[in-house]
Amino acid sequence: MRRRSILLVGFVLTVSSVLPACDDPFLDPYVNTGRWFTIWGFVDASKTEQVVRVIPVTRTSTADRAPSVEDLDATVVSIEVATGVATTWHPTVVEYADGSWGHVFRTNARFRQGYHYRLEVRRSDGRTAYADTWIPVDDPLHVVQRDSVRFDPDGHYRQRIVLRGIASPWNLRVTYLAQSGVARLVHEVPYARAGRRTAEGDWELDIDLSADQPAVKQHVREAILSGEVPGEGGLSTPFNLHQMGIRLTKTDADWDLPEGPLDPDRFALPGAHTNVENGYGYWGSALPFEAKWLVTYELSRNLGWDY
Amino acid sequence: MIPRCLPPLLILAFAVLPVSAQEVRGFVTEAGGEQPLQGASVVLLRGADVAYGTTTDGDGFFRFVRVAPGSWRLRVSFVGFEPREEVLELTEGAVVSLGFALSEAAEGLDEVVVEAQAASGVAAVVAGLESIRPRDLARVPVPGAAGDLAAYLGTVPGVVQPGDRGGRYSIRGGQDDQNLVLLDGVPVHAAFHLLSMFSAFSDEIVDRASLHTAGFGAEFGGRLSSSLDVRTRNGNKQALSGSVAVAPFVSGARVEGPIVPGRASFLVSGRRSLLEDITPRLFGQEMPFRFGDAFVKVHALPARGQDLSAFVLFTDDTGQLAGSSFDFRGDPITEAPTDSLDLHWDNRVAGARWSATTGRVRTEWTAGRSRFTSRFGPAGSPERTSALESTDVEARFETDRFGAEWRAGASWHSVATDWRLDDAFRDSVVTDGVSWSESAAWVESEWTIGSFAFVPGVRLYSPGKGDGLFVEPRARISGRLSALGVSHRLSVAAARVHQAITGLTDERDVGNPFTVWTRVPAGGTLPRATHLVAGWGAAFAGADVAIEAWHKAIDGLQIPVFSVFPSFTTDLQPADGRARGLDARLATENRSIARGTTLDATVSWAWSRSEYETADANRFPAPNDRRHSVSGTLIARRGELSLTLTAQYGTGLPFTPSSGFDAWILLTPDTDVATDPARVRVLYGDPNSARQPVYARFDLWLERRVDRGRTVATIRAGAMNVLSRANLFYYDLFTYRRVNQLPLVPSVGIRLEVR
To answer: Cβ contact (<8 Å) for B565 and A262?
Structure first.
């Protein structure tokens, strides 16, 4: 009995002594994942100056520090992949309205539609983060009016259109051109990202013509009163709806922003929205597009426009 | 949906059901102090044969029902007390009420009754239920000269404490906010002190406690994981008595005595830590912790069969988490932190209880109010504050009907929370709060078939805010079976529980107990847990063995969103939790290891696995997922001397690692990165994908107890963390500031008790 007791005590003491010795109490919660920079920006092929923000991935937050250009060990170069032509971007430091600081690189280089570009952010030790983009091509926008204008039970005229070959449009705006003789006025109704992606990879949108008209007509009235457009008959000057159109920003194929409201807590998760190798963030490209079509006499009348 | 009228109908039915025949019942108390004796052995003998046998419950209450008319002898015995015997003549339909006040035996240990021993310790473990008596607390020494319930809980397998600091604990897969703690029936929202081995429940005030780690009965609800039901001592109704204890960790005093001799008593107990003042001078260590508690109770016996008590409890904890801190390399940080790490919380609890036995029904009413406040940051301008206030009213009934024991009750629970969070990174302040009322009704019965007890029950829970009514079935079966020459203790329990309240902690702070209390959104899925636990126990060669396996499925949890922005978020995301585990305990007592020297030993091991799965199918370990833990207590006694070694080992808890910082922009074709600012972003790794280091601690205590009749002196000297291991307490993932658990801390304490 006593022997067993002594064995038990010995066992407990041994286990208790050995177990903690097996593990080091040191803890470093920082895990370097081999990502060196975060890159935010895009090429807007309709503009002459391009900008990109570069943020170093650091062990501790550096948001409250006022940096100088030299603080960032990074060189930013864009390369036209087909030709190998490289352009070095110019570093600047920007103070934002909220008091924070950032490293912004700029260039006036020309980015050609349809071409493949790579942006490299390189540290002096050679560690490089990079991202690729294909600049959208300014092809004629192919808009299909899938159905004729319909009159819905709620008393609204609606028209469904399909944007062929555009899977993820941004900043959709429907334009209405009102006309009276030589006087013309274009009103833009924002549609943000209304609509949905089709199984074929196109974008489908329902335009609520009836809902849009009060704003268009109000715009016409204000334009007449301010003299922006000539209206010899004053507010009774007959205007008709002559043309409709759609404007949008087309992004590169990889810049596929999710539909619906963008939830920062999910969208900002590292890896949720990135095309940067060895880093985080996104570098893409965008180009504005527009398409127009004529409005029939009958539709213009039905929408309450005068002739 | 269950009709809302069902709970009152159940209670009404309970009151009018037909009753059984002859009954013998009574209370067993300790002579002089009127303390109920739980686990006293009570037997009814006819001639020399034992016809009926039972043990007293936590109130010292026993009952025999359906006893045949005739002549009986009733014998009451309890370890360490003189047995009592009484002759009864039971007539048809008689109900006999008795009271026994047992006196301490001169040679107490000779009168050991097996049933009495089974009232606590490993031998008392019944699937998911741990019965705790003050003598259990005394087995786990704490710095000082008294015991504490918190220190004992740290040795219970399945109870996960983050270490020797923190004031939080998780039980069998549940989180800290899923534990219900009741003091005489009134919730205490933060019952544990900043140093985890101390709680509001010292052995000076605890009469008994029941820890339900899984599969708890219908009486308890509103929390998903566990319930700790602490009942306090009544003051001495015969004479003035008390104690004084002085030690660097905690010093305190207790006074109790009669208000009206034999009928009413008071008990006053208070403790205060002296660490902050003493340790820098004595040991050259900064120990910026200050905590204390005060408890006052008045107890009265207004009439035969009636019991009335009222109490107040105050606790407060203040700590500077920074203490001695280290950077990620382990080097000491000498410069003052730019942000304050002051943590403070306090409890204000008041409650009253009245119980009476009328006819065959025992009724108990409890009412109480409990307020908890907490703040984190500089005392004058804390960065975060949080408060939780509740009001509780509960009625409980007991009787016997249809050949079974029946218990039922109803409760109403009003809760109000508020919080204020400064967001240093976004320069904003979030202030919010929520209030609601909950109600519940429950009934359970206990049927004895052979050597097994079957306890089915059901609880109806209404969490308020229009979230409907939930049915929570409960069941427990326990008993003994003899096989292979050994008496096997078998038990199994199952329960379904719902919880509306939830406590949020910050992902940023590994180890920081600051909690924001809120309610899960109304109209959504209410978190629900399903428990299943099975246990086996037996005695072999003088040692008790207990093994339990358990499973908890927790659905519809609301856990904090893993925000990449460095700020405390109260945003929630749905998740399901799955936890399972196995634990084993081995205990032996009074084992002779040398002439005049005995040994008590308890060793426990627990394995568990606890995971969350979010709605987007992301599965990761829960924050309390400690896979293995081992604890052991060895007590060698020789005369008035005892030497105690306690060891605790736990594999590392999970945390979410960081891959550094960058900044984030919602980049759309409308964004101008030259003018639109970015938000600081922390690059978290996969949730809880990394592990903290192992926690391990040894304590060694030498104690001498000098018993001189009415006066007892106890001197305890020793040290905590004798290996001075650098266990992790707190880690700020943003600043890489690390604070360790307690280093090697010697302590000497003395306690004088007048009985």
So the answer is: no
Q: What is the pLDDT of residues B569-628, one digit of tens each?
A: 556 778 899 999 999 999 888 888 888 889 889 899 999 999 999 887 789 998 889 999
Beta bridge partners of B437: B414
Instruction: Measure the CA–CA gap between A230 and B434, rounded to whole angstroms.
Output: 60
Determine the average pLDDT of the residues in B381-405.
Answer: 89
pLDDT in tens, A220-230: 888 888 888 77
pLDDT tens digits, A97-109: 988 889 999 999 9
Residue type (1 letter), B40: A
User: Which CATH number fits the domain B20-117, given the four candidates 1.20.120.80, 2.60.40.10, 3.10.50.30, 3.50.50.60?
Assistant: 2.60.40.10
* Contact residues on chain B for A5, CB-CB shorter than 8 A: 588, 591-593, 599, 601
- Determine contact, residues B582/A284, Cβ cutoff 8 Å: no
Encoded amino acid at B747, one letter: S
- The answer to whether A142 and A165 are in contact (CB under 8 A) is yes
Residue B519 reports pLDDT greater than 60: yes
Q: Please tell me the total count of domains within chain A.
A: 2
Tokens standing for residue A41: 């920006």
What band does B5 get if pLDDT is binned at 50, 70 and 90?
A: very low
Residue among A269, A271, A281, A274 nearest A256 (CA): A274
Cβ neighbours of A192 in B, within 8 Å: none
Chain A closest CA to B375's CA: distance in Å? Answer: 25
Tell me, what amino acid is at A3? R
Q: Mind telling me how many Å the CA of A164 is from chain B's nearest CA?
A: 20
Whole-number Å distance between alpha carbons of B459 and B443 = 7
Radius of gyration of chain A (CA): 30
Question: With a CB-CB cutoff of 8 Å, which residues 310-329 of chain B face chain A?
Answer: 328-329
Question: Closest Cα to residue B462, out of B498, B416, B504?
Answer: B498
